[in-house]
């Protein structure tokens, strides 16, 4: 029998570590034929190519090269360029991961062509519609045929939205497959030596959410907290292109460079970044995935957001929310430095076997 063709969609940095184990496992299935599509939402070497190389992701079969733009422009461009790919390839299904613009744009195209949609990381919700990703999650899940949530709270969200249990497959957290699989390479990273840091004697920071960096007041509140913390411990800050741009636009370069113990680096590759966070005293972030990775590493995480679509990292993991509230960030950092952080454990099914569960479901239901 001819294998079932599935278009695997990847667009932005947080997609790459999710599609890697899916591609590797699906390529071993006699029943499924993955075709990799890169939309080009992220295109810089450090935001894209590095991850393909490190994680051994095969070269994309098709690149849409959409680049940056406003959300409407980017989504429109992806849809326009993805439509003829569907017509040509005639897949049975597409598989999307996460919540970036590429996830939603490709899903809408597939839904209108009666191509089945598989969404890995379905059902997570921040309930904050000012966050572009929340719209992407809601729209994608509303038209998805095979929903693959990472945790039970996400299953409950999908049921509450009226999805039928038959369409929901609790598979676990796909990012953790890559994290566990990469431990040897992460252990070999020389990033600490390169930056002259010792285990447990520094803080790692990532910051790129529009709500934090596109709003000068919020950005300044965070910087004030960083100023305070860097007097106690050095802070390593691999800087996202969006954040870099906003620092220049807001004229904050001088202030940022006056923070002597704030160490700015280029965006790091997967192995270096994994080593960096896993050896930190704690992590400050507004990323989604890093809340999960710190929970698995057992490293305290202060999330610079008012809400999270990953509440399980707060209930069961090492995460606490601080928003951009200067006092709260400083207070939580102080607690960690005094050794007063909560007990945590790794959530159910975040065990490195999610890709195998995904492939099993697809072989059964497609
Ligand atoms: C996107 C995702 C976000 C994810 C983040 C991770 C959406 C809505 N947002 O946000 O969920 O957490 O990726 O990085 O899909 N740029 C470069 N080089 C690149 C890519 C972007 O310089 O390779 C610059 C562009 O000038 C662009 C800006 O960074 O305007 C922001 O990129 P964009 O893809 O719009 O959104 P992110 O903030 O990266």
Overview of this structure, please?
This protein is α/β, with parallel strands linked by helices and 366 residues long. It folds into 2 domains: 4-172 and 351-365, Glycogen Phosphorylase B (Rossmann fold, 3-Layer(aba) Sandwich); 184-337, Glycogen Phosphorylase B (Rossmann fold). The protein is built from 18 helices and 12 strands. The protein has helices spanning 13-26, 45-54, 71-89, 101-112, 132-143, 152-160, 174-181, 183-188, 191-195, 210-213, 216-229, 241-249, 253-258, 270-278, 289-297, 312-315, 326-337, 354-365; strands spanning 4-10, 32-38, 62-63, 93-97, 116-120, 146-148, 203-206, 235-238, 262-265, 282-285, 301-303, 319-321. The strands form 2 sheets. Strands 3-2-1-4-5-6 form a 6-stranded parallel beta sheet, with helices on both faces. Helix 5 (132-143) links the parallel strand 5 and strand 6 (146-148). Helix 1 crosses helix 18 (354-365) and helix 3 (71-89) crosses helix 4 (101-112). The two termini are 13 Å apart. Uridine-diphosphate-N-acetylglucosamine binds next to helix 1, helix 5 and helix 12. Uridine-diphosphate-N-acetylglucosamine (UD1) binds at residues 12-14, 41-44, 47, 68, 100-101, 132-133, 208, 240-242.
């Amino acid at each position: 029998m001819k294998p079932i063709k599935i278009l695997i969609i990847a667009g932005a940095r947080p997609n790459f570590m999710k599609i890697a184990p899916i591609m590797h496992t699906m390529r071993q299935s006699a029943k499924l034929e993955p075709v990799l599509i890169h939309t080009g939402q992220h295109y810089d070497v450090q935001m894209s190519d590095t991850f393909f190389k490190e994680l051994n992701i095969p070269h994309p079969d098709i690149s849409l090269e959409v680049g940056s733009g406003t959300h409407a422009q980017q989504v429109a461009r992806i849809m326009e360029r993805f439509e003829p790919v569907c017509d040509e390839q005639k897949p049975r299904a597409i598989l999307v991961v996460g919540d970036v613009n590429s996830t939603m744009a490709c899903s809408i195209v597939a839904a209108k062509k009666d191509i089945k949609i598989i969404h890995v990381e379905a059902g997570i919700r921040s309930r904050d519609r000012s966050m572009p990703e929340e719209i992407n999650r809601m729209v994608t899940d509303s038209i998805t045929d095979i929903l693959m949530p990472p945790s039970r709270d996400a299953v409950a969200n999908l049921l509450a939205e009226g999805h039928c249990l038959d369409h929901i497959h609790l598979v676990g957290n796909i990012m953790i497959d890559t994290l566990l699989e990469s431990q040897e390479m992460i252990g070999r990273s020389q990033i600490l030596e390169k930056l002259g840091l010792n285990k447990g004697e520094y803080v790692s920071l990532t910051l790129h959410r529009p709500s934090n960096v596109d709003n000068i007041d919020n950005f300044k509140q965070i910087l004030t907290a960083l100023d305070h913390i860097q007097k106690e411990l050095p802070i390593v800050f691999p800087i996202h292109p969006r954040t870099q741009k906003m620092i220049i636009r807001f004229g904050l370069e001088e202030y940022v460079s006056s923070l002597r113990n704030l160490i700015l680096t280029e965006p790091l590759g997967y192995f270096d970044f994994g080593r960096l966070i896993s050896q930190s005293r704690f992590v400050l972030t507004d990323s989604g995935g890093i809340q999960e990775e710190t929970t698995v590493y057992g490293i305290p995480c202060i999330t610079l957001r008012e809400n999270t679509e990953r509440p399980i990292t707060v209930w069961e993991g090492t995460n606490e929310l601080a928003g951009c509230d200067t006092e709260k960030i400083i207070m939580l950092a102080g607690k960690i430095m005094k050794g007063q952080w909560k007990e945590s454990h790794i959530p159910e099914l975040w065990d490195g076997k999610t890709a195998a569960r995904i492939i099993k479901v697809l072989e059964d239901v497609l």
